[in-house]
Design brief:
Helix content: 40-55%
Distance between the termini: 44 Å
CATH class: Alpha Beta
Strand order of the largest sheet: 2-1-5-6-7
CATH topology: Rossmann fold
CATH superfamily: SGNH hydrolase
Order of helices and strands: HEHHEHEEEHEHEHHH
Length: 277
């Protein structure tokens, strides 16, 4: 009888262990620092600025993928998106205050007596250097300028967001440091973190044969840029892109099955990361 009770107890523990394992999102293994800004945006943004480098510029720009999802989605979103990138650029390269100020002939600037009548952008996304969150030398500057830019963006009446990038193809283990550093800095600056890197790693785990990188093992392939855009869509509008019939449009569209898979990964990653139901 004692032996039977022991076996029953072991079976019960095993069941709980399996249940616990299943209930924890796979991407959660990639980070320990919990995001502090998790509520959906109060309303859909109408104008966005994305500041970054070639990670956001490749494959006709992530804003192109985002725009395609917005146009094909229901309800259709008409958010205008400006992409400002500098090759190999760190956040320190960008004069954010100047970006948010009125310029002659700028269609986004509604000016009266030389001053903006309202902020040019509802949201401003900051995408840093590929090693900003993993290089010992770069992390202090990433932190310094992410926080400084967040203050500048808020002073201009806009909402700052921090994009979590992805590790190099041959250094997948870097995702833990990359994610925790980005989330910590975002938390300290009161910024929402956009979990693109977590979605990247989840896609690779589920479909290791799907190429997410260019041959340089750093920049995103078309699939990578598409996933980036889908994560932005889910994070900015607070809803799933899963049913959107958009396959991409730079050079050649993705296979329907691949696009659907990436949209699903994007939504699950965003939903789990923010704790949305």
């Amino acid at each position: 009888m004692q032996w039977e009770k022991h076996l029953t107890a072991l079976a019960t523990l095993a069941t709980f262990a399996v249940a616990a394992t299943v209930s924890v999102p796979a991407a959660a293994a990639d980070y320990k620092v919990a995001p502090s800004v998790t509520a959906p945006l109060e309303k859909s943004p109408k104008v966005a600025l994305l500041i970054g480098n070639s990670y956001s510029f490749y494959n006709c720009g992530v804003h192109t993928a985002l725009r395609g999802l917005m146009q094909k989605g229901e309800p259709k979103e008409s958010m205008k998106t400006r992409l400002l990138t500098i090759s190999s650029g760190s956040l320190s390269f960008h004069d954010v205050a100047q970006y948010l100020s009125p310029h002659e002939q700028d269609p986004y600037a509604d000016v009266e007596d030389g001053k903006l009548k309202h902020p040019m952008f509802d949201v401003v996304l900051l995408q840093g250097h590929s090693t900003a969150a993993t290089s010992k030398k770069r992390v202090p500057y990433f932190e310094k300028y992410a926080k400084a830019h967040a203050e500048t963006i808020r002073a201009a009446g806009s909402t700052p967001l921090l994009v979590m990038t992805w590790p190099k193809k041959d250094k997948p283990e870097d995702i833990r440091k990359l994610a925790d550093t980005t989330i910590r800095i975002g938390n300290e600056a009161g910024m929402r973190v956009v979990p693109v890197g977590l979605a990247f790693m989840e896609a690779i785990r589920q479909k290791p044969d799907l190429e997410m990188y260019m041959p340089d093992k750093s920049h995103p392939s078309m699939a990578g840029t598409y996933l980036y855009g889908a994560v932005l869509y889910a994070s900015l509008f607070g809803r799933t892109p899963e049913a959107i019939p958009y396959l991409g449009e730079c050079e050649k569209p993705l296979p329907e099955e691949t696009a659907a898979f990436l949209r699903g990964v994007a939504w699950k990653t965003v939903k789990d990361f923010y704790g949305w139901k």
